[in-house]
Amino acid sequence: MTAPVVAVVGGGQLARMMTPAATALGIHLRVLVEDPDSSAAQVVVDAPVGAASDEAAILALVEGADVLTFEHEHVPNALLDRLVAAGVPVRPDAAALVHAQDKIVMRAHLEAIGAPIPRWAPVSTAAEIDAFVARAGGPVVVKTARGGYDGKGVRVVDRAESVAAWLAAAADGTGAPLLVEEKVPFLRELAVLVARRPSGEVRTWPVVESVQQDGVCSEVIAPAPDLHEDTRAQALAVAAQVVEGLGVTGVLAVEMFEVADPDGGAPRVLVNELAMRPHNSGHWTIDGATTSQFEQHLRAVLDLPLGDTAALAPWTVMANVLGSSLEDPTDALPAVLARDPQARVHLYGKEVRPGRKLGHVTVRGTDLADARTRARAAAAALRGEQNG
Ligand code: ADP
Q: What is the CA radius of gyration of the chain?
């Protein structure tokens, strides 16, 4: 076989959703899965079982592979550096990936390249947090630098005492270091998805709005409605600045806050968070764009020409299926598919747990309100809600 082999670390839904694109392009996917029942292991033929931190498992994974890439950021960087030294292309490489692993490194580097970010400071004592609160004049956001996801390492506080356990854990080394940020009075959250290949080509999808519920993305609207042309231009420019400035290869999601301009001009953006892999804010591209983020990631890490990123319809709405009262969300397929033949349903083969991302639904259309209602209704039905 001479087909390119892409080795992927992580067996969740992101690796699972790379498979249709790999199949279409004749690319061989080899995915390191945490467990033989994981979302990706159900559909990937070549799916060795092992931990992302297990050096022997990673070495076996990259044997004969053209490139190593990731669906999550939890691979030890020293190991990645050793792979690169041994001649294995790692994309994105450890030097880029660290920005998606560590919010302190990310904030410091974004500041250094002049990207707009919230006011922030690394902190290690209660006094430093309380001083930041006093300067901000109100509640602030304390974050763990590493290991957080879906808002789990994020807390809004008005005094250091509220994060005493985090401070203690950071001090004795059992927990991650902390940073504090201004609580940004954002108008809404936006995201820009961009792909870059090693030889330099960059392609960006339209700016989207991402709607969060309890720190978890519940809905994405592409393109972001009523976005001021200047804000759109700034968001795209910032994403380009970040992807180049941090030397990212593959797909990068730049999550942003849209904030009012104090001088009354067009709203501005501040960068909140980065993901160096396909991301929930880009799931709409599977059904809503000429090239999906999953296909683009494979093209980019293999240094193949990138695909067109144009939207296929005026509006695309993606609604997440978060938890379900059904034993399995596929129980709702007869009703959901009968009611809306144009809704695109994606289920991840994951066991139901409260609030867990089990799938998503995408609806394209010419009327935003209609697309939104239909995407939400289908997602609600998959969650087992009677009137969904
Ligand atoms: P995670 O890495 O766990 O996803 P994020 O840093 O992206 O954490 O934060 C999760 C959510 O918390 C954001 O989507 C946003 O809604 C809110 N948030 C995070 N930082 C701030 C901030 N500085 N000001 C206001 N809200 C914030």
A: 21
